[in-house]
Design a protein that fits this description.
Length: about 350
């Protein structure tokens, strides 16, 4: 498990290992002065559900309750986080976003104290030694995080580090293997969502047949099946106006459209995760000459297992996915090879 030496792979507020159920908790939020009379909520990180609520009075909100197992949570006031921590059966106080108390929180504080001490030791080395000893320090930090994860893999602390660490780098087979070894991981909603995305990605990889979707905007409905599988190559660009890499790829797509559009290549932009008004401005300002689908949001990204954009897919005449996730020269080569093959 590799990370940058200075990568903060978790929050500094987190925390310890407990296999036993600790059902009763008391959480005290020391709130900001302007929060008096407002309601604070404890929100589960994994499910986004409200687990508890309390009114802030005399500068404090006090939560009392029970839970079946420790959870990683946020305490929210006015839709903003006032602290993120591990909720277990213990007394926990939160002041200025810092949680104290609870086995998991204390274990995580200890981990971060040791990690930051190593980073500080590295930074205090003479410049001449930093390059020489970088791998040594990196190995130490990787080892610390690996041990923390392994020792807590079946509790909320391990889940947190698994989700923001290995889970993001695994393919479907690797994730299934991890879940088989530690079934509790497969019970988390966020892990399930990652797995579903990997499954959808595998189902729409190169060589697979396209999956249809439809998007309705301003009274007009777009269906992918009205364009794909109709005897011509179709290049579909999933993008957003705020996405810098997406905008950079438009120059490549413009070149391909100019060269191969007259030879039958159809280009379609599908705007995802974007406000319609921003998409329309982006189309105009970047002078995109091809059809663009507005306000697709999560519809196609859920179907195609798209975790990041731009995602550019070339569909063949029969609807088979010829190329996926290529950019720049690789994209140029894929389109040129397909169009010039005549197949």
């Amino acid at each position: 498990m590799k990370h940058s030496l200075f990568y903060a792979g978790g929050l500094l507020l987190l925390a310890s290992c407990s296999q036993s159920q600790l059902p009763q908790y008391v959480v005290t939020l020391n709130a900001a002065d302007d929060a008096e009379g407002k309601t604070a909520y404890i929100v589960d990180f994994d499910t986004d559900e409200n687990l508890d609520s309390a009114v802030i009075a005399q500068g404090k909100a006090v939560f009392n309750g029970s839970l079946e197992s420790p959870r990683y949570v946020s305490v929210m006031v006015d839709g903003r986080s006032a602290g993120e921590f591990f909720l277990d059966g213990d007394s926990i106080s939160i002041t200025e976003g810092i949680a104290k108390g609870g086995n998991l929180n204390e274990l995580n504080h200890k981990y971060w104290s040791e990690r930051l001490a190593l980073i500080e030791e590295f930074r205090n080395l003479p410049d001449s030694l930093q390059k020489e000893r970088y791998e040594e320090f990196q190995t130490k930090i990787n080892g610390m995080e690996t041990r923390l994860l392994e020792e807590n893999i079946d509790n909320a602390l391990g889940y947190y580090y698994f989700f923001y660490g290995p889970c993001r780098r695994m393919d479907l087979a690797e994730l299934d293997s991890a879940i088989a070894a530690h079934p509790s991981l497969g019970e988390y909603k966020r892990v399930q969502k990652v797995r579903d995305g990997l499954l959808k990605y595998a189902e729409t990889s190169e060589g697979k047949m396209f999956k249809d979707f439809e998007v309705t905007y301003n009274g007009s409905t777009f269906r992918l099946s009205d364009h794909v599988g109709k005897g011509k190559y179709v290049l579909v660009d999933f993008w957003a106006s705020w996405c810098g890499p997406c905008i950079r790829q438009t120059s490549v797509i413009k070149d391909l459209y100019k060269e191969y559009g007259p030879k039958g290549l159809e280009v379609i932009g599908v705007a995802v995760w974007d406000k319609p008004e921003d998409t329309l401005k982006g189309i105009e300002s970047h002078e995109l000459p091809w059809m663009n689908v507005i306000d697709a949001q999560n519809i196609p990204t859920d179907i195609y297992g798209i975790a990041g954009i731009p995602t550019i897919i070339l569909f063949g005449p029969d609807g088979t996915i010829v190329s996926r996730d290529k950019q720049d020269d690789e994209l140029r080569q894929a389109v040129a090879g397909a169009m010039e093959s005549g197949k």
